[in-house]
Amino acid sequence: MSAEITARLEALSITLPEASAPAANYVSYTISGNLLYISGQLPMEGGKLIATGHLGDSVSLEDGQKAARACAINIIAQAKAALGGDLSRVRQVLRINGFVSSTPDFTNQHLVINGASDLLAEVFQEAGKHSRAAVGMAALPMGAAVEIDAILEIA
Description:
The chain has helices spanning 3-11, 61-82, 109-124, and strands at 29-32, 35-41, 44-45, 48-49, 90-101, 131-137, 146-154. It has 155 residues and is an alpha+beta fold.
């Protein structure tokens, strides 16, 4: 992993977890050419979901943003695993898709997913700026409040 990325993670007090194994019949990531596709990541910390329920009901905006940040940390952990530990191979975070379990009247999905977007930009700097979608969902796997997947350009 590049020294700059390691230093940024340390400055943010982030220790990357081990990349989690898939929970069903899929793989955690695939590489095609210079593209790394990372499967949806849930807001897991220490093997447990940190946010379950719906934004606009039992989950606050702040907790949703923390959940999105945790998803981004898990995306980075998957990228590290996919790239043999060398995050300096990330050329650009191209796109993230953010899914927010929310009530029909909750319309701040974009603010929730900022928790992930902000972290990716802090860690990867210009290479962390990406396009994205932030959409509301009726439910997510295991009752998670947020799920995020990613596409990265790699060297």
